[in-house]
Amino acid sequence: MTIKYTNHFLNxxxxxxxxxxxxxxxxxxxxxxxxxxxxxxxxAVVNKFFALEGKVNSLIEILRSIxxxxxxLSENNKKLYAxxxxxxxxx
Length: 91
Fold this sequence. Notes:
This protein is an alpha+beta fold. It has one domain. It has 3 helices and 3 strands, in the order H-E-E-E-H-H. The protein has helices spanning about 5-20, 50-65, 75-85; strands at about 25, 35-40, 45. A 3-stranded mixed sheet has the order 1-3-2, with helices on one face. Strand 2 and strand 3 (about 45) form a beta hairpin. The longest helix has 14 residues, at about 50-65. The model has no long low-confidence stretch (mean pLDDT about 90).
């Protein structure tokens, strides 16, 4: 599957995050990578001034780096999450 830099694809990634224990927030900040993960409080913060491409790439990196209980995900989200974690997404 190829990465689509659209609002629809961003919404799919946000939907996966909403089904996890993590809270996704868009805020301003000086993050080196464009995002910050607070593992203790299970919060992921993405730079709100990023362009759409940056937000999508940040969410993909976040989803690859955190542990998610896949039993809480819907079937469509499980499929997309499996593609993300198995590096099956292509530019």
